[in-house]
What does this fold into?
Amino acid sequence: MGKTANDIQREITEIRAETDDVLAVLEVRVREMFNLRSQARRHPLVISGLGFGLVSGLSLLAYALFLRSHPTASPSLHRAGSFHTGEQPGILKRALWAAFASSVAAVGSILAKRLAAGVWMKASKELLPST
It folds into this structure.
């Protein structure tokens, strides 16, 4: 009929234990959500895309600032086919090309790794060996 003090105390202890377990799980999830390394492991293509966008945006900003600070250089830089006239690309263009090429190589590397992992797991029907 009525609950004894020991029953109530036991229920309180059980509720506290359940609450502690739920809070521990929630704390782990929140830490993982804001941990950039774990997010990069889970979503490498998104991180690569963000990196590519950041590098591209900074490169375009640097190029725009260069053109603004060197108004006499802009006609030769804007001219189509300027590389075919024997002119050598400037250091800024080479840096932009290097940033673009490394971004594409990084994305290609991630895609190749994912493809190889998928082929390995389907062919061998086992998980990847740890590296």
Q: What stands out?
A: The chain has two domains: 1-34, 44-124. Residues 91-124 form the longest helix (34 residues). Residues 44-124 form one domain. Residues 22 and 111 are 37 Å apart (CA to CA).
